[in-house]
Amino acid sequence: MQEATQAIVIGAEEDPTQVRSLIVVPIRLGKEIKGVISAQSYRPNAYREEDRESLEMLATQTAIALENNSLFSKVQEMAMTDSLTNIFNRRRFFELADAEFERSHRYQHPLSIIMMDIDHFKRVNDSHGHAVGDIVLKQVAAICKSSLRTVDIFARYGGEEFVVMLPETNAEEASYTAERMRSLVARTPISLGDKSIQVTLSFGVVELDESCKNIEELLDRSDQALYASKHNGRNRVSIWQKKTE
After folding, report:
1. Boundary residue ending a domain (40, 57, 80)
2. Contact 71, 29 (CB under 8 A)
3. What is the C-alpha to C-alpha distance for residues 75 and 202, in angstroms, rounded to an integer?
4. What is the model's pLDDT at position 244?
5. Domain limits at 231?
6. Is 161 in the active site?
7. Domain check: are 94 and 212 in the same one?
8. Which of 17, 99, 103, 227 is the most exposed place for a label (fewest CB within 10 A)?
């Protein structure tokens, strides 16, 4: 326990609001000091050793509470995030997308979805191994995320498939975004240390309309558009249209 030190009092001695006694103890998390807790009095020599011990106990309890809150936040983040790519997982996507779908549907605001898939991803795993496949997934996710807005909901949908929900965005605008991601991924080598490989993505774009009743139907339409891109040669963007049903 540290010894008390004398403080220099600045101000008029006769001022009744002048602080004349002060205790300050640190809030420690491991070796880091996250803050302090202090108590003050207008009376000189107002505090005794047991007062400081009480304040130190309060600081310890505060540190424990802060650490627990930090751990809770990390657990929550892990529950929402895909551990490999560090973007939203499928579960979190549906939580956010359902709410955005209802808002857009109710107020008739534009809303679009982009579904994307890494072309010939099985060949990557078969030729280079699953560790390289993981690197590809991480780097593709990072490249795509750099092209999106903070309001866009970007998630790993499953395997090598990703999905983006774009609020306040029509199909034409979403197709521009998809094309930007397609082009960026196609011209960016995936670094593997001493070598690199190239991958491409195929995209399906759909815009919410009055005939679409739920998020699952909207996703199914984007998946149909993605299939059209795959069927027509891959490494391209397709927009869902009723004639493709």
Report:
1. 80
2. no
3. 33
4. 47
5. 90-244
6. no
7. yes
8. 17
Quote the tokens at residue 28. 């420690």
Question: End-to-end distance of the chain based on CA atoms, in angstroms?
Answer: 75
Same domain flag for 113 and 174: yes
Domain count, the chain: 2
- Per-residue model confidence (pLDDT) at position 226: 98
Residues of the chain where predicted confidence (pLDDT) is lower than 50: 1-3, 244-245
CATH assignment at residue 206? 3.30.70.270
At residue 159, the 3 state secondary structure works out as: coil
Q: Which is catalytic among the residues 100, 160, 168, 217?
A: 160
What is d(CA 112, CA 152) in angstroms, rounded to the nearest whole number?
10
Q: 76 with 194, same domain?
A: no
Residues 54 and 131 occupy one common structural domain: no
For strand 201-207 and strand 111-118, is the pairing parallel, antiparallel, or unpaired?
antiparallel
